[in-house]
Amino acid sequence: MVCSELCDIVEGRTLHCYIVKGGNPDSLVWTGLVDMYAKCGKVESSHDVFDGISDRNVVCWTSMIVGYVHNDCVEEGLVLFSRMRDALVEGNKYTLVSVVTAFAKLRALHQGKWVHGYVIKNGIELNSYLVTALVDMYMKCGVIAEARVIFDELSANDFVTWTAIIVGYSQCGYPDEALKLFTDKIWKGTLPNSITLSSVLSACTQLNNLNLGKLVHTLRVKLGFYDASVTNALVDMYAKCGAMENARYLFENFSHDDVIAWNSLISAYSSNGSANEGLMLFHRLRSEHLQPDEFTMVCPINLCFPWES
Hints:
Strand content: under 5%
Shape: globular
Number of helices: 19
Radius of gyration: 23 Å
Order of helices and strands: HHHHHHHHHHHHHHHHHHH
Distance between the termini: 61 Å
C-alpha cells in the first residue's frame, strides 16, 4: 500500500474504513493493513487487524512478525512465530529473516543457531537478506569467526552483507578487520552507503588512522553523503585523532544542531587539555536550547575535574 511506504497513518485509517464498508475483503487486503499499521508504528492496531483475519497464510503471519520485530517488540514477534508453528504454518525465508533479527537483538545465540540449522536442514534458499541477518546475529552474539565463515561462503559479493560485516567488525572491537574488508580489492568497484562510511570512520577512530579517515572524508564528498550519521562520525574521527581544526570546521558548517557532534567535540577538548574551549562549547549548547543527553552532562564534570588532577 502507498500509505505504508509514506507512513501516512491518517490516509491509512481512512482506507481501512473504506475497506470495512466495502465488505468481505480477502486476506491479501487485510495483510496490507497489518503491514501499513506496523510501518506507521501502530503495532496494537496492526495486531487488532491480524486477530480479525480468519484464513491466515504465511504472508499474513510474516507481516505481523516483521511488524513486531521492526518496532522492537521482539518477544511478541517470537511468541507469534511459535503460534504460527503451532498452527502448522511453515515460515518462509522472509519469516526467518525477522526471527533471526529478533534473536540478534536479544543476543540469543543458541536460538539463532537453531534457526541457522533449520534453514540448512530444510534446504531453504539463502537470499541476501537471510545471509545478512545470520551474519549480523553471529556478530552481535560475539561469534565473529562463524559470521566470517558465512560471509565468505555465502555472500557472493553482496553489498548488503559486506556492509553488515563491516558494521559488525567495527562495533565488536575489530577495527583492523573492518578496514581490511573495506579496502579489499575484491570490493574495489563497490560503492559504500552512509552506513558503511560511518562504520569505516568509527574503525579509523579506534585505530587513530587519520590518513585513511581523510580519504574516507574525500569519498564522502564525492558520493554526496551529507547525512548526520556520516558527519557526526567525521567530527568524532577528527576530534579523537587530534585534528581539532577539521573537527570544528565540520561541526560549525554541517552538524552544530546535533547533540552527538557536540558531545564528540566537548569530549575531545576534555581529552586534549583544552578545558576552557570545552566549557565554552558546553555553555553555548545550553544557550542554543539544545537538549543534552547523559553523555553531555558528564563532559563538563570531566572538564572541571580531569583524571590527572
